[in-house]
Amino acid sequence: MESGKKRKKKKYYDYSLLFLILFLSCFGLVMIYSTSSYNAAKYYGDAMKYLKRQALFLVMGIPVMLFVSKINYHFYIKNFPLFRVKPINILYFLCLALQAVVLFSGSEAGGSQRWIEIGDIRFQPSEVTKICVVLFCSFMVQAAPRRLDNVKGFLRVVFYTLPLIGLVVVENFSTALIICAIMFVICFVASRKKGYFIVFGILAAVAGGILIFGVSYRSDRIDAWLNVETHPKGFQTLQSLYAIASGGLFGKGLGQSMQKLGFIPEAHNDMIFSIICEELGLFGAISVIMLFILLLWRIFSIAISAQDLFGSLIATGVFTQIAVQVLINIAVVTNAIPNTGIPLPFISYGGTSLLVLLAEMGIVLGVSNQIEYER
What we know:
By secondary structure, the protein is mainly α. The protein has 12 helices and 5 strands. It has helices at residues 15-44, 49-69, 87-105, 125-143, 151-169, 173-190, 195-213, 216-226, 235-247, 272-305, 309-333, 351-369; strands at 9-11, 107-109, 112-118, 121-123, 372-374. Helix 4 (125-143) runs antiparallel to helix 5 (151-169), helix 10 (272-305) packs antiparallel against helix 11 and helix 11 runs antiparallel to helix 12. The radius of gyration is 22 Å and the shape is globular.
């Protein structure tokens, strides 16, 4: 090749990340069938009830993910020619409206009012709010990143994100915590001055303590965590620990769990990791954790290689969301922290949450698709 000849640039696409997403989602189907088949057959007469529903949303979610991955992520912050409004602004006000609907007339389940029901479909708007916060905070920060060198710039981001956090925290403290973490990390990464984040971290911890101990059912969870063997609300966590302990090194075998037979209520949801430990043992648990580490590594690689700051911050926000959810879920299952309802991404049962998560991963793949390299 001649020295003066320009090399062609080619668009990148992270197929490693795509493979990890598909593998974790399919593994989730296997574990959902294993954990839910007994109860599904007992109460509904169809052992595959939960599997078929989750598989349906996965089949719908994969094309959505692939379609979104081909959209230039700058589309979300460009004005529509006719209405002079950005898609991210529409999403922001849509999430505010949905969260308000949940707060005043949402569907209740498990003692919490977090869902909207449309026919046979029930979904949590807070899942969409996570995507909104990732995109909205990234947009605000990339528009004027140097503002974050001053505390006023950070407060500006907080001011616009606080309405979403406030509507979510009323009924869903754990999701509000994830949203705060997304906002905080995006701002922290973009700022050259880090000192004031320590002060706000302490203030956030104090506010969190007030929200926990100021609400009776949340403080009860602290008591159950400290007295898991004797507290009435510690039953589920205690059974989860039994499942983990009985799994040993290589587990009892796929489908051979005893704790899923009514001892752990709805084991296919937030407590599914305990059944993974019981059936696949320590080896299976570590393998799942390693898969998540690889997934996060690929997202991190996209963040540091992104075409611009906006793309980098989007990947950073999604990285934070996945990491915090995995950490909280595993910590709850192992009783390292008090019980709270956070699903294990891609694996726990939840069709609409899986669909939204796949769309979000499509945005990250879209960021990777704008990275150029020479060939």
